[in-house]
Amino acid sequence: MKLIIINGPNLNLLGRREPQIYGSASFDEYLKTLQNNFPEITLEYFQSNIEGEIITKIQEVGFNYDGIILNAAAYTHTSVGIGDAVKAITTPVVEVHISNTFSREDFRHVSYISPNAKGIILGFGLESYKLAVQSFL
Fold it and tell me: Most buried pick, 70, 80, 89, 131, via CB within 10 A?
């Protein structure tokens, strides 16, 4: 099984950015834990702060991977383009958020990804990614 985690803007700062919301571990540290927990899965990772690069990556992997775990971060609530990219591909996408977006600002209650996602996992910290991986098993 081949999965890819695609993270959006500012998630490269995990471990340093707002630890009260996002925790103190970097994503690279957590990715190693995921890979160790799921050795039977080829688990790749891509992060970009640039909307177009995220769209390009979704299109690149969206017809030949078994699943995409997508945390588009703030682009979740603003990017029709990322939502359209998810709609255009055949690979199933699980939308993930570290925080509970519904307990935050009102604008974070809208997702352009959710209507075309296989499912949504939010609010469980970095463990949201583990739950997403498990959803593909």
Answer: 70
Which pTM does this prediction carry?
A: 0.92
Cβ distance 24 to 98 under 8 Å?
no
Three-state secondary structure of 72-131: CHHHHHCCHHHHHHHHHCCCCEEEEECCCHHHCCHHHHCCCCHHHCCEEEECCCCHHHHH
Average pLDDT over residues 54-69: 98
Q: Which residues are catalytic?
A: 22, 97
Where exactly are the structural domains of the chain?
2-135
Q: How confident is the model at residue 103 (pLDDT cuts 50, 70, 90)?
A: low
Yes or no: domain 2-135 corresponds to CATH 3.40.50.9100: yes
